[in-house]
Amino acid sequence: MIRACGQRLRDASRVRHLLPVPPRPAVPDALRRKAFRGSDVVRSGLLTANQLRGPAWRRLFPDVYAHVGLPVTHELRALVAARLVVPGSVVTGRSAAGFWGVELAGAADDVELPVPPGRHPVRTAGVRVRRSLLDPAHVTRRGATPVTTAEATAVRLAGILPGDEGVVAVDRLVATGVVDLQDIRLLAAATTGPGSARARTACALADGLAESPPETRLRLLIGRSSLPTPVAQFRVMHEGRIIARPDFAWPDRRVALEYDGLWHAQDGQFAKDRERLNRLREAGWQVVFVTAADMYRPEEVLRRIASALGVAAVVR
Questions:
Q1: What per-residue confidence (pLDDT) applies to 262?
Q2: Whole-prediction pTM value?
């Protein structure tokens, strides 16, 4: 019996040696840090078709691949789409915003690319192509990628994003320092066609002072009410020095309004906030805090502010 068991183990070992061993993924150094056309690298002999279908490679678009170790961001997909999927196109809209430091599109969102009116749009999964004649003055390059200028990107976003989001996008672009609000407004005033009226309205409502999207939304909420207009990023002086710079303030009533975002919970920030609050109170100021949860109850937010100001809040 022992001899039989030993024989079976030897037989099993031989069978294992006869099984094909999966080849280790071939990863040429030249392909580790860039996207490429699969057909090109197969034709050149860098990879075989079977290797390209293996776990070492990620498919970004039809016939376009990247190494799995390369982080896939929307900016990367936009760069690749403009270079390999729709050659000669320009990145615009939400996709262009990422090149200017404002992330409005997720990694899996469609890349926005315009093509000239006479050119047939390429229908590819993951790419949204529209016919549009771009003024060459509104096109620049970020690295090797053709994108709309920061001004043109802002006006485009102001014209296509719903509700307050166009104003939020303009404020965010201005806050990055890559563009001036006045330049955006001038371009919006000269823009015609679909969405141009909405773009002009959004650019007029933007102020470029908000330090976060919720601050813009809060300012617009107040603007649609009968509350007095606050001063954004007001420097509160006490005994000859600046003691605080609240998000919004009504200096004549000594009322400050702060949006209390998630960053306030970071290490050390809570103590700094409370110290600043104490300084404001010692200077005779009242502080109203608004959280992300509060923004789902806009009437309550306005009521709370109105109470601090000693006025009535009516939504226009």
A1: 45
A2: 0.82
